[in-house]
Amino acid sequence: MDYVGNIIRPPSEAHSMIIQVTVGCSHNQCTFCGAYKGRDFCVKDIKTIKADIDEASSWGVPFTKAFLADGDALILPTTDLLDIIGYIRAKNPRITRIGVYANTKAIAKKTPDELKELRGAGLGIAYQGIESGNREVLRRVKKGAFPHKQKETAEKIMDAGILLSQTVLLGIGGVELSREHAIDTGKHLGDMSPDYASALTVMLLPNTGLYRDYQSGKFRLPDKFGLLEELRLMIEHMEVKRPCFFTSNHASNYLPIRAHFPEDREAVLKAMDRIIKRKDDNSLRPEYMRAL
């Protein structure tokens, strides 16, 4: 496989055929992300992509899903995506769902008709990192998209019939904006009501601007119970309009949660209240087990 650099995929795509169609991220300015630093964004040529599909298809693995990497493969022209998706499914008839990372800019560039055409071809799920629902937090971390545009593009994805999985980052507002970040992000998720929502915890990576702010004292990360308070506050304000599967079971988090909202929300809040009140370390993931 012609993989360039480290290939990053969502946890739910662990058993998917992974095809790298872009290298890096077209935005690559977020202060918290070190995944693609020092790497120029580029689109792979279709001959190389199809050669990778041929190789993966020859392994004899009964793939039912495929994922297009890297950071924002949806930025490709729709005709190219349709060609790639069609080739994958022609070679692998069992594959019924294609997944892709989709940043807000990439979604905004697609028309509703283009998204519906991609859905019809097999694009079944889009993963959108929104990080926060607070405008100031998004400005500070140079996300490149504010809440109103995130909501607009989320609606475009769901209106096209594509499943939407959104991720947010605990701790990204630091101690200073922890409460505002938690409340606004919870409201933002509730307002959009994606099919899936996941909370990860920001990890301070040496090759990022956020780490340099931490080193200088400009940014202070909440402690583990501060992060837990943040997660609780977020969930408290996340009043979804339709069913949403919520998780915080990523390895970066202290408290793994898997719950169906809205029905499980009150039970989750009560369980969190008990842990926070008792400062119950035994219920939290040990530090040595936390990772990206």
Folded structure, characterized:
This protein is globular. The chain is built from 10 helices and 10 strands. It has a single domain (11-281), classed as TIM Barrel (Alpha-Beta Barrel). The protein is α/β, with parallel strands linked by helices.
Rg computed from alpha carbons, rounded to a whole number of angstroms: 19 Å
Number of domains: 1
For this structure, the CATH topology is TIM Barrel
CATH architecture tag: Alpha-Beta Barrel
Tell me the CATH superfamily.
Aldolase class I
| Strand elements, count | 10
| Beta-strand content bin | 15-25%
What is the helix content? 25-40%
Mean pLDDT: 96
Given helix and strand content, the structural type is alpha/beta
**Which regions have little confidence, pLDDT < 50, spanning 5+ residues?**
none
Give the biggest beta sheet.
8 strands, mixed
Secondary-structure blueprint:
Blueprint: E1 17-20, E2 22-23, E3 42-43, H1 46-57, E4 65-69, H2 78-91, E5 97-101, H3 104-109, H4 112-121, E6 123-131, H5 135-140, H6 147-159, E7 163-170, H7 178-192, E8 196-201, H8 209-216, H9 224-236, E9 244-247, E10 258-261, H10 265-278
Parallel strand pairs: 1-4, 4-5, 5-6, 6-7, 7-8, 8-9
Antiparallel strand pairs: 2-3, 9-10
